[in-house]
Amino acid sequence: MKTITQALAALLCAGATAFALTGCGNSGGGEVQAATLAPFKEVAIGTDFWSVAAPPPAGAKPGDVLQAQKRSDAPNGAIGWNVVYVSEIQPGRLAYVSGEIYYPAATATAPRDVVLWNHETAGLGDACAPSRRSTVENSHDRVPAIGALLAAGRVVVMSDYPGLGLPGPAFYMAGQPNARASLDMLRVAQKFPDAKASARYVMYGWSQGGQTTMWAENIGASYAPEFSGLGAALIAPAVRIRELTLNSMTTPTNAGYVISTLPGIQAFAPDLKYRDFLTQQGMEQLPALSNGCFDIWDAAAGVKDAYVANALVPGSSWWNAMTAVDNFTPRGAMPFAIFQGTLDTTTPVALTKRERSALCRAGAAVEYNEFPALDHLTVVAEAAGRLPAWMDARFKGQAAASNCAAP
User: Helix axis angle, 241-249 relative to 255-268, nearest 10°?
Assistant: First the structure.
């Protein structure tokens, strides 16, 4: 069986070669009134879209769009844009973030409901950002089921997350900053009149995107109260970074994955020191973080003693920081569908079932789907085939199935 390093690298990087932009429904629902803004700038293809040095100006609001660039690779019958927009990535801290929006090219006759995609691990370098990559990678849609969702008349939006794609540290696996940036893409959709986006949305995420989705469910009603979340789906969700890291630390081949998570947690808690987690052998792997989207995963796979003693034990600085990242509980605000493969060693069944139990305790209707012989990667295609119908039912107001009572 492929390691997660080999499989993700093959899937995500195969389509990241140069294309036109990069180097590496009709259901009801009211519209949100867009804020009054000066028209944002449209940047021509071929210019350096992602070089944004200055911070947002005084008076900027989350969801304000600085600039947009039309994509040449939108799915058939759709229009796609890259965007640079404002997000309040932490309370009182505004930053520019990059993302994407896609919507049907046909003129809308009614508000279009929105699907919010939360992406998986992409790497830490800016060139690894999803918006810098092709919409089709390794003969597959980069965003699961995007073609079917657009054909159903949905608007599909997604964030690169803070610091990925644009200057600044990436908050990889830091949870709340990524969820804030994701929810702000709902506001971005309101700035595109031709999208005719409604105030209703369903969201879904794979791997790291599962953490983003769970955090967004937790803060959505308070951070973006003008929108109505009708459901969420998790695909092999990597939610609790502390438990995931402890799990990965038991397998030497996952040392690169563990090391790659540390900069994102340090972005969340800047006082953290790598030397409190990594041995000298581990520290020597850090330069590989900037060598490519997944180089660190392969480079560190052979390191036998990458971690100092007590690197992640109760009371250690990294334990406390990861505990803070994980310090949220589901609100039970919307129904969930979960897709999990039994062969997944990156996000094991036991950890996913723990999230299922937390959602059920919160009162959410949860449809948990477990698939024998599928792993962290192969479960994605299975979920993509089922999700459009599940999302359509949410937008139609149908009752969501739940198997919370099952073991």
Answer: 150
Residues 388/154, Cβ–Cβ less than 8 Å? no
- Amino acid at the residue 98: S
pLDDT tens digits along 369-389: 999 999 999 999 999 999 999
Query: What single letter denotes the amino acid at residue 352?
Result: T
Rounded Cα distance between 390 and 376, Å, is 21
- C-alpha pair distances (Å), 239 with each of 36, 123, 172, 181, 206: 37, 17, 12, 17, 10
Start-to-end CA span in the chain (Å) = 28
Structure tokens at 315: 């009371």
pLDDT interval class at 182 (50, 70, 90): very high
Backbone angles phi, psi at 141, to 5 degrees: -65, 130
* SS3 per residue for the chain: CCCHHHHHHHHHHCCCCCECCECCCCCCCCCCCCCCCCCCEECCCCCCCCCCCCCCCCCCCCCCEEEEEECCCCCCCEEEEEEEEEEEEECCEEEEEEEEEEEECCCCCCCEEEEEEECCCCCCCHHHCHHHCCCEECCEECCCCHHHHHHCCCEEEEECCCCCCCCCCCCCCCCHHHHHHHHHHHHHHCCCHHHCEEEEEEEEEECHHHHHHHHHHHHHHHHCCCCEEEEEEEECCCCCHHHHHHHHHCCHHHHHHHHHHHHHHHHHCCCCCHHHCECHHHHCCHHHHHCCCCHHHHHCCCCCCCECCCCCCCCCHHHHHHHHHCCCCCCCCCCEEEEEECCCCCCCHHHHHHHHHHHHHCCCCEEEEEECCCCCCCHHHHHHHHHHHHHHHHHCCCCCCCCCCCC
Tens of pLDDT, residue by residue over 293-323, are 888 888 888 788 999 999 999 999 999 999 9
Do residues 188 and 157 touch, judged by C-beta distance below 8 A? yes
pTM of the entire predicted model = 0.90
From residue 351, alpha-carbon distances to 237, 245, 313, 362, 407 in Å are 9, 12, 19, 17, 14
- Show Cβ contacts of residue 261 under 8 Å, excluding neighbours closer than 6 positions: 172, 173, 241, 245
For residues 239 and 208, what is the distance between their CA atoms, to the nearest angstrom?
A: 7
Place of tokens 């049907």: 104
